[in-house]
Amino acid sequence: MIKCFVSGYWKSNLGDDLFLKIVCERYPHVKFYTFLDKKNSEQFKQYNNLTIIYNNFLFRIVNKLMRKMGMLQLQDILGPLLAKNFLEIGGSIFMQDKRWQYRLKQRNYARNQYSKYFIIGSNFGPFYDQEYEEKYKELFDSVDGISFRDSYSYNLFAEKNMTKASDVIFGLSTSEYKRQNKKKQVVISVVDNDSKNKDTSFNLQDKYESKIITTINKLTQEGYDVILMSFCKYEGDTDVINRIYSRLGNNNHVKTFEYFHDIESALKLIADSEKVIASRFHACVLGLLFGCKVLPIAYSDKMMNLIQDIYKEKKWLSIKEFVNSDINSENFIYLSENAAKLIGRDAENQFQFLDGFMKQIDF
Fold this sequence. Notes:
GO molecular function, one term: transferase activity
Shape: globular
Order of helices and strands: EHEEHHEHEHEHEEHHEHEHEHEHEHHH
Distance between the termini: 7 Å
Domain Polysaccharide pyruvyl transferase: 13-300
Protein name: Polysaccharide pyruvyl transferase
Strand content: 15-25%
Strand order of the largest sheet: 3-2-1-4-5-6-7
Keywords: Transferase
Structural class: alpha/beta
Helix content: 40-55%
Radius of gyration: 21 Å
Mean pLDDT: 95
CATH topology of the largest domain: Rossmann fold
């Protein structure tokens, strides 16, 4: 049996949890291993081909001390003892921050310790200096396959062991979710802009939340039910929807939904909705996939690059544009069923290199 250590952002974020779900279901004959906190594991216990090693209290304390000393984490050391192959899957996993050299050290160690190293589903950046780009070019040249999710990232490197394909989640099966006869319902995914953009003015988040409230009031007057949706409590989404909800007063047409473990309920909620106002990247992806009318609100380049690749023109609003705009039907975008299927087939290419490796193995 092939054994593979899979690394990702396992903080009960709907998008990243879908990545792991898709991988486990795509390769049922592969034994996967990963480390995560027990509180974030419930949604993955159904997969017999996934072994979870829990980050308990002692584990976290040791890791914190090792990180302060510049040493590798326990999972970096233990992973190669469990599996010969390494899969890193995630979206914004190559952002330059103050810890980028340490993270690069971990990746270079993985490159040297595992027989195979694959990267799936990512975009590159934002980054701020040439050294960062050059160091990652060295790493990318040495891995066995990397699949970017936007043209911008791919074109920065564009080597033979690299490809560009639509986001992994566009490849999700939609057969059990309806595209027609949707509820007169709008899902609004929110984001904590202050945590996402450290250089923004201190009151941007308040303006953003006030604009969401104005938009909700307009939608409910038009007869829509509204669902304020948190994709990731850890990143502050739940705090945002609670603040907004508390300012709405008594509005029976507004509810909240916090994603935590229940992937199917989250997907059904979006699929049933006529419209999605998407501050979250994967709210935009899922809305388009399920045939909703989507208003993309971009807090970073990754959503802009997603829309640019699909529509070849600007069809999004930045946070500041959203705050200062009168929202109307022209701001919403849509994918036909045929277009969504084409993009879904393209998303299969995210697994081009990993599939190629698997085909060489006699199960």
